[in-house]
Amino acid sequence: MENNEIWYLWSPWLKATNSPWEEVLHLGVKKRFKKNSIILGNGQPVNDLFYLHTGEIKLSSVNSNGEEKPVWYISRGNIFGEVPYFDKAHCYSIFTSVTDSVVYLFNRQVLTKTIIPQYPDIVLNIFNTMASKMRILASQVNDLSLNSPKMRVYKMIYSLVSDPINNVIYSSQQELANLLSIHRVTLNRILVDLKNSGIIQEDISKKRITLINAEELLKLIEAEQV
């Protein structure tokens, strides 16, 4: 099992893949968002494509009861809001700034009249980005139907192998549990077992999980898949 395959299929953190957009920032509108601000969502129409220049953004889905479930986290260097933008539909998912963030907005005229004709690398990047997100979402759905809560936690943590920062920073165990669609008590029990086995370290005061023994964690993943 390749490390990058585990990241690609199961990590809820999207790495920067949209560096070509840095070349066209002068064509966009720069906006700043404070931490915990809603950037996009709540049924609003979408007339711009968004690019995260700095910061971090959380994408959440909302059910009929108004309950939010985190889907993934977007780091700097990613575009977002592609689906409602190209579908010309309202956005009912919610994009929230996890940290103070700088976002560039590109309207339809700029995209269709300037960027698409003059920057073919960006066109290819849009296709690649949307395909990656679709595959990740499909894999998350597959995970929910086929994999145990323990396996979902294992794969989420193992994704740190490909992360240069090599840790998970979370706002609360409850949100992390919501992200993985498991009960918080179940998540806590799995994390305690991993800590006792010397596979991870968890700094509760800083809300940070660090993977320290990837080899042993991979063995647990492979054992679960047998």
Automatic annotation (TrEMBL):
Domain HTH crp-type: 147-215
Domain Cyclic nucleotide-binding residue range list: 31-115
Listed name of the protein: Crp/Fnr family transcriptional regulator
Alphabetized UniProt keyword annotations: DNA-binding, Transcription, Transcription regulation
Pfam families according to UniProt: cNMP_binding, HTH_Crp_2
The organism of origin for this protein: Desulfosporosinus nitroreducens
Keyword check for DNA-binding: yes
Coiled-coil region(s): none
PANTHER family named among the record's database cross-references: CRP FAMILY TRANSCRIPTIONAL REGULATORY PROTEIN (PTHR24567), HTH-TYPE TRANSCRIPTIONAL REGULATOR ARCR (PTHR24567:SF74)
InterPro entries hit by this protein: cNMP-bd_dom, cNMP-bd_dom_sf, Env_Response_Regulators, HTH_CRP, RmlC-like_jellyroll, WH_DNA-bd_sf
CDD domains xrefs: CAP_ED
